[in-house]
Amino acid sequence: MRDRPGATTHQLDPHVRRILERAELEGVELIRFLYADHGGVIRGKAASRSRLAERLGTGIGHTVAMMAMNMLDQLQEVEQMGPVGEVRIVPDPTTYVPLPYAPGGAAMLSDLRLPDGSPWDACPRTFLKDAVAALADEGYSLVAAFEPEFTLGRRLPDPAGGLDRLVPLDDSLCYSATGFDTAHDYTMKLVRALEDQGLRVEHYHPELGHGQQELSVRHAPALRAADNHVLYRETVRGVALRMQMWASLAPKPLADQAGNGAHLHLSLWRDQRNVLAEDGAARAGFIGGLMAHLPALTALTCGSVNSFRRLAPRSWAGAYAVYGPDNREAALRVCSPLGESGEPNLELKPSDSSANPYLSLGAVIHAGLDGIRRGLDPGEPVDVDPDTRPGRYPRLPSSLDEALDALEADEVLMEALGPLRRRAYLAVKRSEATAFAARDVGFELAHHLRVF
Ligand code: GLU
Ligand code: MG
């Protein structure tokens, strides 16, 4: 099917008109249409400003095969994702942002649609939108924020032609004042770049690991929270590159240092009230659903081989399938509210930035919703470090393959993913597990810090 000229109708849309005006005024020449793939990689194509009016309507043509590509750029064999077939990368006009770290560039978060404009079964952003809609059908909405950590440093090529290494910026201590100073110039640029894109910065601190930073942004409705996380990942990397540095959000870019989480903060709302603030059936069911599906969820929230190097006990990454009030070793921490106006929220710790945020948040919604619908019992909260009670509490999967086994056994999540998406996701992730199992840890670290 040929592209439809979209300019005429879409110029009537106020969002579109504003984008075109802004792009011209702000000297933007290339607009990146971004999406996240099954390998958790952010990819896209860019439209020139001169073609933007039309491309906002038609999207840019793309091969279906890219959703069968793994994080090593190895194409997997997936039925209906071969060399024949076409989708469109169609940007959401409400997400347009000029990129402060890429002068002349802007970005828009995009859906993958069929040429006739209908959503494609393997579009990750559509998966999250559908989950949000299913939750709304039951009268609820979800507010979320990713709380990412990352490692800042320089990427050093191996003079012998081997794999690059990440040399961390500093060896400052956790939360230390020295760490604030060593990373200050970068952090200031990052804060400004995020704020310029409409992400509101909440907190920052130098983290435990060498070169490790944590900077959190304000919560938002679920789809916006996932979009924000894509922009965040891009900005962390982009700002570093402009300063001849390298930033990695990989779960464990340095084997002997603390891992990088992207804890997922969640609150559930009904009729303008935070359901988590009330000790009711919906709260219990939502937590019960997350607990019941946790092992399978990790296949989506901890999306890479490297994720499971991070997801270990005694590292505050939430390696045990338990929940508890302010328990930093529980997979699900029930966070106490900050001050009188603060809202209680849940913090899912087995979550990192190698996940596709749309799939991860969508799956979390489906898990919680299942718990509400079936009135699942979350069991007793745990108020000790579960690792101090050997054999008492269940561990989460300790490898990507184990997590994928749990996912395949989880009827609710498999059904939610649907045939095409689950086939592709499993093929891509199984291929990564196999590819990294055949190589050493250095290969795993080098490739994860390159991509994430
Ligand atoms: N770095 C830890 C992780 O991998 C989290 C530490 C913290 O609680 O901030 O999740
Ligand atoms: Mg932290």
TrEMBL record:
<dbReference type="Pfam" id="PF16952">
    <property type="entry name" value="Gln-synt_N_2"/>
</dbReference>
<dbReference type="InterPro" id="IPR027303">
    <property type="entry name" value="Gln_synth_gly_rich_site"/>
</dbReference>
<dbReference type="GO" id="GO:0004356">
    <property type="term" value="F:glutamine synthetase activity"/>
</dbReference>
<dbReference type="GO" id="GO:0005524">
    <property type="term" value="F:ATP binding"/>
</dbReference>
<dbReference type="Pfam" id="PF00120">
    <property type="entry name" value="Gln-synt_C"/>
</dbReference>
<dbReference type="InterPro" id="IPR008147">
    <property type="entry name" value="Gln_synt_N"/>
</dbReference>
<comment type="similarity">
    <text>Belongs to the glutamine synthetase family.</text>
</comment>
<feature type="region of interest" description="Disordered">
    <location>
        <begin position="376"/>
        <end position="395"/>
    </location>
</feature>
<keyword id="KW-0547">Nucleotide-binding</keyword>
<keyword id="KW-0436">Ligase</keyword>
<dbReference type="InterPro" id="IPR036651">
    <property type="entry name" value="Gln_synt_N_sf"/>
</dbReference>
<keyword id="KW-0460">Magnesium</keyword>
<protein>
    <submittedName>
        <fullName>Glutamine synthetase</fullName>
    </submittedName>
</protein>
<dbReference type="GO" id="GO:0006542">
    <property type="term" value="P:glutamine biosynthetic process"/>
</dbReference>
<feature type="domain" description="GS catalytic">
    <location>
        <begin position="124"/>
        <end position="452"/>
    </location>
</feature>
<dbReference type="InterPro" id="IPR008146">
    <property type="entry name" value="Gln_synth_cat_dom"/>
</dbReference>
<dbReference type="InterPro" id="IPR014746">
    <property type="entry name" value="Gln_synth/guanido_kin_cat_dom"/>
</dbReference>
<keyword id="KW-0067">ATP-binding</keyword>
<feature type="domain" description="GS beta-grasp">
    <location>
        <begin position="26"/>
        <end position="117"/>
    </location>
</feature>
